[in-house]
Design brief:
2 copies of one chain form a homodimer.
Chain A: E1 2-3, E2 14-19, E3 32-47, H1 55-64, E4 68-78, H2 86-100, E5 108-115, H3 122-134, H4 141-147, E6 156-164, E7 167-176, E8 189-194, H5 200-213, E9 229-234, H6 248-270, E10 278-286, H7 289-301, H8 303-310, H9 316-324, E11 336-341, E12 344-350, E13 353-354, H10 359-366, E14 370-376, E15 382-389, H11 393-401
Parallel strand pairs in A: 4-5, 8-9, 10-14
Antiparallel strand pairs in A: 1-6, 2-3, 3-4, 3-9, 6-7, 7-8, 10-15, 11-12, 11-14, 12-13
Helix pairs in contact in A: 1-2, 2-3, 5-6, 7-9
């Protein structure tokens, strides 16, 4: 498996672009993204579990229900959610893709992100479409990645290649994150493309399997968005023998997909609203996977742990506290906690109680921009990892200012 | 029912005091509280549901298991939690009460609040006990209320009188809140005293019934503490006919207890770490109570709603979003949202979609220090209220600085 450039255009058959069409007031911010494929693709998606769903999700679910799609259109700046005319507008976005390309409206994945409850102005989208389509290219992934950003500070893009049946295959993805991000969801906005020859059923299975350990293990603020969506399109142009069951090919594909989605999950966590550092909570020797996941998510979601990490303060009592309010069964008196970063590792809690440690060493470890909290349950063999970020003044500033 | 002064000393038979004994470094901060009664009391308690429990809770549960107690001792500055010698130290605190008063160690309720995982130094407590006991008086409630505070900015104290069988009865309470506060718990630290003649069984029943709609509906930060505890002591000196069943007397008692705990719940929410305003979410016309409570708690707990309220920003989309990620069943297209404060009320969402409203009026309403979010579900007759506060820079500062 090899990291390559190209993002969502790394796989054969895909082009992308992103433009500023005018939904967002700031002219420097791109706000409309398009990804297209030369051929109809096998397609699969997972969606927010929030009961208040963005209109684009409803339209996308319908369009993708036959397992086929050929394009993704996505705007930022307006979520097109909680609007009486939301579905109509989302449908219009698909129609615009059809009008300006040879792709059928019913093969378009449509997504929106931004403010909830403001009527989406179609004029800028309609006006911007020709330019958006004209600019489609195999170099367009960065622009598409930029156009789906909201409060994100960096664009998130990745691609890997790997071999199947002697053929070079590719998977690439772009994502946006930042706020309204919580594990109790399908995911945030993430678009993945591949040229692996795979049935839409197996694509669906792979996505469901991999998302559980990657994007669903990210928590920024506990707010599950109304518009989260992760879709994957496969052009099937790599030339490998078609994957139709859970054999070796499927496993290889899942392995690479996991690499892609893990990278994007960590990038999203690191770029959480106001974050100064990436937090990782690794739970090991847990009773079972469910328990390991639940504990990892609880620690990574705790406002108090997050605030302590912002201050590089080894306040491990808050970690124990967050473990304690999960629904899981464990023996508190067996729990060990270590803090780790690239400069070292330190044990702060053993058998559920504090151990003497050098505060200055702990502070040095926690001052790095990527920090791991390792929770050893000593009651089984299961493990899980969750990702998040610290809680900072900046999170409050961003979210106090966002709409007005 | 009449609001009166006296706090936990309003009821007949009770004395209280609070001193600075030296657990906390700042000499201006009281850190050791004692409440005693002239007679053994009927007693009941509810405790945190966090699986990591403070050692004092274990000792208190044992001491209160016979339904009798006569004193409360509580220190701030150290939670006496996650320490190998925690139970031993908590027991020593009870022994110290016995040593300096005529009250049996096994009739003492012991509580601690503060940093988790630091060994409790008994010396200051032992040294401070005689002064603490010497200062016990019927005017001592404010000092006791101050001595249990951690990051609280104001002390929380209340008392009411009411009549039963022609006898004047009293209930009073003190509480501390601020951080690590979440509805999924018994409660924070709250000590209630009364002189109502009531069996410990009915006291237990009343406490369980009333806490559900009061302290358990407060959410500051989603972190359920390891040390939360609410206890009630009854001296039975009011002279009313003993309450032994769910008759009129019991109902009157519950009504007054609800008044006390509602007041303390709101005070705790208003004084949430870093809060600039009290938020209240009233859910009405919900399918059932469970659904109403769950929606109210979800809205009041949302970081994004809380940050918007800090900015007095009528970002109702975030309210809908928070309603949407509850597990409850409702029809989004029937939900109305109003924002209200003492200066007025404004509708911002009707039938699940935005309605035009005057932003300047909304900002004026939200700029008050007590704000209500009213969610009308239009799918039943149940209602519930939850209390919380806004999310501010100050919350982050307090929690980043707390330990170091």
């Amino acid at each position: 498996m090899k990291k390559i450039s190209g993002g969502v255009c790394a796989a054969k058959g895909f082009k992308a672009n992103g433009v500023h069409c005018g939904i967002r007031k700031n002219k420097d911010k791109l706000d409309l993204a398009l990804i297209t494929c030369d051929t109809p693709c096998a397609a699969a998606g997972v969606y927010t579990k929030n009961k208040v769903k963005g209109a684009p999700l409803t339209v996308t679910k319908t369009n993708i229900s036959d397992g086929i799609a050929q394009a993704v259109i996505c705007n930022s700046g307006n979520a097109n959610t909680c609007n009486a005319d939301g579905i109509e507008k989302a449908q219009m976005m698909c129609d615009l893709v059809q009008k300006h390309t040879s792709i059928k409206a019913s093969d378009v994945i449509v997504a929106s992100t931004g403010v909830i409850g403001e009527v989406l102005n179609m004029q800028p989208i309609s006006d911007g479409m020709q330019g958006l389509v004209n600019g489609l290219s195999t170099d367009g992934s960065p622009n598409a990645a930029k156009a789906i950003m909201t409060t994100d500070r960096v664009m998130k893009e990745i691609a890997y290649s790997f071999e199947l049946d002697g053929k070079e295959c590719h998977i690439g993805g772009i994502a946006k994150g930042s706020g309204m991000i919580n594990p109790n969801m399908a995911t945030l906005l993430c678009f993945v493309t591949t040229d692996v020859n795979i049935s839409s059923e197996m694509l669906d299975l792979a996505l469901g399997k991999v998302v559980k350990d990657t994007l669903n293990m990210v928590c920024i603020d506990g707010d599950t968005s109304t518009n989260d969506m992760l879709t994957i399109l496969s052009s099937s142009l790599a030339g490998n023998e078609k994957i139709t069951d859970k054999g070796k090919g499927f496993n290889e594909f899942c392995k690479c997909l996991k690499k892609i989605l893990t990278y994007l999950a960590k990038e999203i966590a690191k770029d959480g609203e106001g974050a100064t550092k990436l937090l990782e909570c690794k739970v090991v020797k847990a009773k079972n996977i469910k328990s390991a996941k639940s504990i990892a998510q609880s620690v990574i979601s705790s406002s108090l742990v997050k605030a302590a990490m912002f201050a590089s303060d080894a306040n491990w009592g808050r970690i124990l506290c967050a473990i304690g309010y999960t629904d899981e069964k464990f023996d508190v008196s067996k729990i060990d906690v270590d803090l780790k970063s690239r400069v070292g590792m330190i044990r702060v809690c053993e058998n559920g109680a504090g151990v003497p440690f050098d505060e200055s060493v702990a502070t040095k470890i926690l001052s790095e921009d990527e920090v791991s909290i390792i929770v050893t349950c000593n009651c089984g063999g299961a493990k899980a990892t969750a990702w998040g970020c610290d809680l900072t003044y900046e999170y409050v500033r961003i979210n106090a200012d966002y709409r007005t």
